[in-house]
Amino acid sequence: MSSKNCIFCNIISGDMKSATVFENSEFKVIMDRFPASKGHTLIMPKEHVENIFDIETDVASRLFALATQISKILKQTLNCEGMNVLQNNGSIAGQTVDHFHLHLMPRYKDDKININWENLQVTEEDLEEVAKEIGRAL
Questions:
Q1: Catalytic residue positions?
Q2: Is residue 137 part of a domain?
Q3: How far apart are the C-alpha atoms of 15 and 77, rounded to whole Å?
Q4: Quick check: pTM over 0.85?
């Protein structure tokens, strides 16, 4: 199922152009049109799924296996020194296209990419409390 208003669905359908790296019946892998670094790649399921809260676990598993394979190829091909794997969910988290997609961002010395945050001040007890709360939900 696709959404006509979704830019990624339009790319997947071929209605919009993209630099395609790989495609199979389930996923499309393209070069990010506005890359943070050389080789910045996006992996998206062909089925329109908004975010991590909606994607099926088995689909996510296959997507991440593909991400691992492509990351190794990016490292080998582009000689990057590291890799950020980034996936945003919801506008508060920086998601700008409401179609699940995973960013593979090759990293190079002095590349000017900055993915940082200010650490929260927590105690061991705080961590244990949250761990137990999450654990009970599993």
A1: 101
A2: no
A3: 29
A4: yes
